[in-house]
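ping. complex inputs:
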Amino acid sequence: MWRDLGLLRSELGLMLSRWRNRLGLGVLALVPLMVTIGMYQSSRAGGGPDIVGGLTNGLVVPLTALFAEAVLFLPLAVAMLSGDAIAGEANQGTLRYLLTVPVARTRLLVVKYLSLMIGAVMGVGIVLLVGGILGVAVFGAGETATLSGSRIGFWDSLGRLLLAGAYVSVILWAIAAIGLFFSTLVDQPVAVSIGVMVVVALMGIAQAVPELEWLRPWLLTTRVQSFVDLMRDPIYWTQMRNGVLVALGWMAVFLAAAWARFTSRDITS
Amino acid sequence: MNLLQRRPSLRWIAPLLTLGLVVTAPGVVQRVASADPGLEPRTAEQLLADLAGAEPRALSGTVTQTMNLGLPSLPDLGQGTGGDPLSMLTGTHTWRVWTDAKQSFRIAKVQGHQEMTLVHNPTDSWLWDSATREAVHVSHRGAKGSRREVPVPEAPTPETIAKRVLAAVEPSTVVTTEASTTVAGRPAHQLVLSPTSANTKIGQIKLAIDHTTKLPLRVLITARGASAPAVTVGYTSLTLGTPDPKLFRFTPGKRVTVTEADNLPMPGMPTPAQRYHKDVTIVGQDWERVLVVTTGSPVPTDDAAVTELLGQFPVVSGDWGRGHLVNTALVSILITDDGRMAVGAVQPSLLYAALT
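pong. complex structure:
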């Protein structure tokens, strides 16, 4: 147990020490900055309606940034991390050494997935943190207008913002499970990242094809934006509950597949 | 060595099994959720009496409307969120409803990332559209402080639809019952209304009636000869009890454009006459009713979108004129070139007759 924790800590340390991951966090933080600039200019120009209603509270910035990043940037970040998870180690030849340490493969896989989950939360966290600080600094901490036309206080909107972050994280965990499976298949981290992004892109395309409407409830890309329902008054939970269930389904299938592959595979490289 | 270590490929059974479980889960859940609770049967007469005697209940719920008329998806011709009556003819629509069963209610139409909300209480009515951030306010206070009645739109909840359906029942209908079912987690009886007229396209209308409250929980409308319902309107969740009174109040936020009005524009299921100042008449009786709308202006021929939309439908003509016929399993719509429209759940011949 403690050894696993140590393994997780070293895994996270490794993840954060990589320059491309730090750069990735920087890119994620760039979007809230852009949103702040855009909203500042439009609010000076009189301001048009935006996705979450009138701009009366700085917390609209992180919410808008999350909305903008949830479909492409955050999945891309998860895709990059999952490339490193197993395939990266195999590519560098370190996987062999890792497995000579007496760690069961299943436990190694669990640690790898946990670190991906934490990585996804970090990605969402940086968007919310940077967005929240910038938003409150520029627009203040007033009331927020909901989609239902009512107003909610600062702490209420902060709570809803954190719920939105949690919801997006759960969807990203499902994408991370797909990534982990791909990572056990090949030795090239880039191939894993591309593979995950292909899946995400395919979901986006399937969403737009009328003949594939029956598939729509299963698509993570459609599900991820349901957190907008948090901005209704009272909160409309149905779609988010379904979204979480769908994400759990994807997780279960791909984690089982990753386990089947990783525990039965020959590590030769 | 255990079996999995000797035959590692057997491990692939785990993901395949999980996949099977995940894919079949919604169907199983659906089946369990609509299981027959085995209620003691009630006769059709008893159920009709139950419906007539049902008391309004304070409740919070979600109503889902699924339209499967076989129409192509129509372009949104109205402005804003679901304000266009035509958009109600296709797709799935979700309404959240709250009522105290007395004088106050709130209806929110959830659509994508927008919302249209109607708040009605004894002193005020508000209609809010999140897409335009506009609110329409109707005060119920008339001149010199007197109270005046404001007509309010009805959401297409199972109750309002059942009321309209039952008004059309006699005498041209066969009323039967079916095995009980579960709707929104509540045991319900089922009443089946089958029109006898050969001119209507409605095969049957099935009402699910709550066992304890006698409220209509779901309405299924099936076209003649079809097996799957063309229209489904039902509660997907329902909680009895008085909702939080603050839901029945509305305070416009900053930067909300408030328009004071004498009457509410009707959202979702508007009365076209009020919204577009058209002339609307109803021709025929009971199940053979045809709604005739006269716009007074011919269909524009220079508008590419309109031409393309109408071009999908065959041209018909008769001594009533010439027009395009949208002939679906459940409804017929005739749009004449001179700008009249006839709509009904009837055979096209009745539309022609209604226009002459």
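The interface with chain A takes residues 8-9, 11-15, 17-19, 21-22, 25-26, 62, 73, 96, 108, 110, 113-115, 117, 126, 128, 130-133, 135, 236-237, 244, 247, 250-256 of chain B (CB under 8 Å).
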